[in-house]
Give the backbone structure.
Amino acid sequence: MNKAELIEALVDRTGLKKQDAKKVLEAYMQIATEVLSANEEVVLVGFGSLIPRPQTSRLARNPRTGTPVQIPARTTVKFKPGKFLLEAINNK
C-alpha cells in the first residue's frame, strides 16, 4: 500500500473528504518526524512504536570496486510492533 492508497482507505473508512484525509496523514508524518528528530519515541498503544536508534560509524565496502568506505554515524528508526498488531497478523 502506498500513500495514495492509504489516503483512499482513510476516505472509505472515515467518510472524510480526500483533501482532509491527505492533510491528516501529512500532519501525522510531520509530527512523527519532529518527535523522532528530537530523539523521542512515537508510541501507538496496541499498534506499535517508532523508536530512534543511533548507529555507530562503520567500515563498509563498495561492491563495484571493493574499496573500503567509511559510513558515518547516524540515527535510524526501528519499528516495534504492538501486541494487538502481532496477534492480528498472526491469526488470519
In short: Residues 11 and 17 are 6 Å apart (CA to CA). Helices lie at 3-14, 18-37, 83-90. The beta strands are 42-44, 48-55, 58-61, 68-71, 74-81. The longest helix spans residues 18-37.
